[in-house]
Design a protein that fits this description.
It is built from 14 helices and 9 strands. With about 350 residues, the protein is of the alpha/beta class.
Amino acid sequence: MAAPQIPNLLESLRKSKAAGNSNGLRGGPRRGPALGSSDAVIQQTDDDAAGSRLSAVDVGYLQDEYARALSFSKQNVRRMPIINRGTYVRTVAIDVSVQDYLGSHQDLQIISLGAGTDTRPFRLFDGPLDLRERVVYHEIDFPDCTRKKITAINNANLLNDVEFRVSEEGTRLASPAYNLHPLDLRKLGKANPQTDTDELTSDQKLALLPGVDPERPTLLLSECCLTYLNSSVTVSILKNFSNDILKPSTPISIILYEPLHPDDAFGRTMTSNLSARGISLPGLEACPTLKAHEERLKACGFETSGGMLVKNWWRTKVSDDEKDYLRNLEGLDEEEEWELLAGHYGFIWGSRGTSKWPSV
């Protein structure tokens, strides 16, 4: 969710409670426009995420020297403490899981869906020198998003020690260890009304992602990306990766970060606020719970799956000393509201063909 919407969401919920309306906003959430007409709005949510990441870094929740270079906001906006904590949990939970997975595979590739301005590949390659020999990192996003990121990478010289090539259009970047792919993910799905295209062959799908190795152990990452897609398209994308783009014998794992529970008062307020921005979440309607996500992963070829709410990760995975440090950064009076917000987002993971699968 875009961070600037959280204050409005929380304020709406407070008013709802004060009015004694346990059902949230009257009339339920409005439906936004079709996905095709809201692509630009969806892309703008990444700017919000980048701003939240920069805020968390500035306050001290995270250490990320690349956050400023990949934030396109003209001014620094300090987010609410509840947002900074959420950004911390989202970032650290996935970082820990990725590092754990790296420790169990000698050579692998990471494919990030809807990566936006994510700094993870740059932070990752700041680690042990052998990672650039062991890991190939692929990021997929709309061409407008990859073009902006390539411009930022060049302006900040983030790859000054790496040989890389940029396409003539300025939307694709290729190097031995890091690759940016300008691609609408829906092209990897079946024919749909928005794109009106026929389903591609296996070779055609693989050709859209040059450098992806169909036999290399793979970790898929998706943070609030698939929720914008119709469930049938998401299922097709997941099946294509597990059985088409990658060979059925290739070990594959996935980590998702997704909004959940749209049907209670907080969830209805959340979806209504997004709808007011022209954003609909068909994926949330199709998979409103952790269990629904876990079952979908198994239906798409992942042999094992699991999930955890953000609030439970905070409770069980963050040490008391770390909690005290983070609370002392700025304090957080809205513990009840944190529980509400963190109870509406979760991590889901799945795996096939590997003895070690990611769990946050």
